[in-house]
Amino acid sequence: MKPLPHDSFAERIFLSGILREPELNVLAFTRVAVADLYCHPHRLVYGAAMELWGAFCTVTVADVYRRLWLRGQIADLGHMPAVWLWDLHEADPSGYDCLAAAETVLHLSRWRRALVAQRALLGELERGRVAPEELQEMIR
């Protein structure tokens, strides 16, 4: 089965933006959910950042690192999590638009959800649990 569509670069740019520009946090955290990110380490970082923001705390690399450490998730970032987080913070040297990256993340997330739903429906059709006529009615 082919992997679901995603853009790791857009996710990194998005996370870099929220770690570097706190004024973007309101826009980011109210529009993008943790489940919208595809890469597991990116989901962990964004979840920790959202948790900090929701508790009215600052969202810095050090704060996110500390939150992940307290959750017991820091090892999930790989061999050198502090370096990985700092690299993530510095991922946007070009000034690429964080909000444009957020739109890409959201677009791909909607696409993935549609593909997962399509695969589930086709699986039900193959198992004979849904008649072709019912499937056509669901699509309308």
- Based on secondary structure, the structural category is mainly alpha
Uncertain segments are none
Total helical segments: 7
Give the DSSP E fraction (strand runs of 2 or more residues): under 5%
Q: Tell me the total number of β-strands.
A: 0
Gap from first CA to last CA? 26 Å
Mean of the pLDDT scores? 85
**Share in helix:** 55-70%
Blueprint of the fold:
Elements: H1 8-20, H2 25-31, H3 40-54, H4 61-71, H5 81-89, H6 98-126, H7 132-139
Helix pairs in contact: 1-3, 1-6, 3-4
Q: How would you characterize the overall build of this protein?
A:
The structure is a single chain. This protein is mainly α. The chain has one domain (8-139): DNAb Helicase, Chain A (Orthogonal Bundle). The chain has helices at 8-20, 25-31, 40-54, 61-71, 81-89, 98-126, 132-139. It starts with 7 loop residues before the first helix and ends with a helix.
What's this entry about, in short?
This protein is mainly α and 140 residues long.
Spell out the key features of this protein:
single chain; 140 residues; mainly alpha; DNAb Helicase, Chain A; 66% helix; 0% strand; elongated
